[in-house]
Amino acid sequence: MSDRILAAVMPGPGRPVEIREFARPDLPAGSALLRTARSEVCGTDVHLWHGRLSGVPYPIVPGHVSGGTLEAIRGPLRGIDGSALREGDRAVFFDVHRTCGRCRACTVHRTPTRCPSRRVYGITDPAAEGLFGGWSQAVYLEPGVGIARLPDAVAFDDYIGGGCGLLTAVHVLERAALRPADTVLVQGTGAVGLSAIALARLGGASTIVAIGAPAARLALARAMGADYVFDVDGSTPGQRLDAVRALTHGEGVDVVIEAAGSARAIEEGLTLARDGGRYVVAGHYTDAGPSSVNAHQQINRKHLEIRGCWGSEPGHFLRALSYLERYAASVPWKRIGERTYPLDRLNDALADAEAMRITKALVDPSVLAQHVSPE
Ligand SMILES: [Zn+2]
Ligand SMILES: [Zn+2]
Predict the structure, then answer these.
(1) Which pLDDT belongs to residue 375?
(2) Fewer CB under 10 Å: which end of the chain, C or N?
């Protein structure tokens, strides 16, 4: 094993990603080094690239959801489910770490995803502190990080195809409190929306409607379990309202899941929910600007329940793994990860993701398109 580890570093907003060399980290007790097999480029990475998230300590090594093989362990080390981990295990980890367990968010409000101490691999960990991101040949798993063996039935491409979108979708479905035979509308057919469709289908929804774009993602939305899909650019809000009402006894849907990240989607989602329905907003991870709401017509008189959904907790990570173990063979999460890029082609991957030329870009950090010579 080499002492030289290459990583793709995002130096700052608007600047190209560049390859940098890191020393192999010294491992304190309770830590591990993960040889990265797969990471991903998600919508958050595109936002990071443009500086749309506040409090990001650039330069960073992006790639918050990743998987690989445990190359070195300073153990004994137990996984997040309590089982012993060994060198050579295929493993994945929960990207959120350092949640304090002592602040008001953690203890009083029981909203640990709003803990101010919380850090996230690939997003809020600085490259100056080491290999805290999956766009790297190896990831440093510090003591306390939640690590899990990847079930034998789950390929790295299944896990990363679901990726952060699947973890988020598990939390979204929890917030949606889905009941048997609920009708569901999913706004947005990116990684979060596609996994939300699959989980709503597995969770007992009756009719599932998806609104999104482009055509390839709408086809994938059907494969994930949507009954009806609407191209957001090829139909009008009025046409979609008529269609949704026709499918729901004229009422609107029981549950709307927003995974579109557009201010206009909020306005439409409030209208398409039925009286007494539920609306979970999960797509506004960055500020998409104000939506205009008629509180009388769209909230109060409708007796509507609106919930936000921020981040995920260790339980969502483990539940995502359980879903994959049972359903990766029948739900096409793998198809979400459409193309795999070498470590030194991340600028292309970000541009392709932003232009929606692909559903999701995967990263294989062990591959370099160009030979990198030692200095
Ligand atoms: Zn806390
Ligand atoms: Zn992500």
Answers:
(1) 42
(2) C
